[in-house]
Amino acid sequence: MVIYQCRIQWVWIVTYCQSPYSSGKQCSHWSKMSLSRHEAVEFLSGTLGMPTVSSEDLKPTLPLLNGIIKHFQQIIPYQSVVACSLDDERRHLPSWSEIQQSLFAKYGGLCYSLNVFMKVLLESLGYEVVYVSACGFRFNDHVTVIVLNLRGAGSKDLVEVGCGYPTFQAFPLDFDDESPVYISGFLRHKFVKRENSIIWYHEPRQTPWSIVTSQLSPDGWFKFIDIEAFTPCDIRYFESSMTAHYTVKEDNIFLVAPRAVLYENCKLVAIKGTQLITETEDRKVDKKEIETLEELLHLYKKYFPQLPQEVIRDAVKHTGLFG
Predict the structure, then answer these.
(1) What's the predicted TM-score (pTM) here?
(2) How far apart (Å, rounded) are the C-alpha atoms in residues 132 and 119?
C-alpha cells in the first residue's frame, strides 16, 4: 500500500452537525473550539481522575503533559463503535459540541475527536500547540498535535492520543537524524527525520493490528505514519479527509467493523470486530475470537461500560458483524 506524499491544500466545506440520535440540521461546522479553564480542570479531575488538580496549581510543564497523556489513554477509548452505529444518512464529521460531550462522557472516538480535544485542552492550560498533518494509509488521513517551546525555545513534542497505540508521554522531535527507541507497553517504536517530515516507525513483532509488508524498512521496521511535523496547519485543512473517515465506507477500516481500544493500567485491552485483544504481563499480545453477539455485548460491558449497549447493537447491525 502506498503512503501518499503530503502537501498543503485548503479545503472549506459545510457539513452536518448533529448528535447520533438527532435528525440534525445543516449548519456551519466551524464554531469556536475552546474550553474554559474551569472546564479543563473539570475534565482532568472529574473525567480523567487526575489527583490534586486545581486551577491555581496548573502550569504548562512537561510532567503535567505526560500525566495528562497517560491518564487519557487509560480512561478515554479510541473507538469507531459510535461511527459504525449510524446509518448512511446520519454519518458525519463530529461537531465540537459532540466531541466535548463524547470526551466528558468517556465515550472517546477516532483520531479527529481525540487529538482535536487534546489540542484544545492543552491550549486552555497554557501550552502552545499546533496541528500538523500525517499520512498513514492515504493522504492527510491523521490529525496530529505538536506542543511547541516546552523544553526550550524552538522545541517540538509529539502528543498522540488518537491512533490506538500506546504512547503514555510526549515525544521530543528535536533529534538530529533518529530518535532513541521507545518502549510503550507492547510497542517498540522510533522516529526518523526526513527532509520535510518525520517518519514514525513501529517494530511489527508485537503489533496487534495488521501490517502492510510493503511498508517495512530494510531493517524490518514498519512505517506507521509520515508526520508533516514542520508544517503547522489550520483545523479546516482536515475536513475533507476526516469527513471521509466518518462517511465513506469503501476501503475504510473504521466503518468495516466496530473497534474500541483502551490501556487500562497501561495495558492494552481492545475489541476489534470479533476479536478480543489483550496485553499480558510480559508485554505480549493475546487474541481471542468472539463467537456470539451475547459474548461481544458482555465484553463491551466489561471493558467499555460507558458505551451504551444499544449503540453497540446498532454498530453490529450496520456492519453485519455476525452475518
Answers:
(1) 0.87
(2) 11
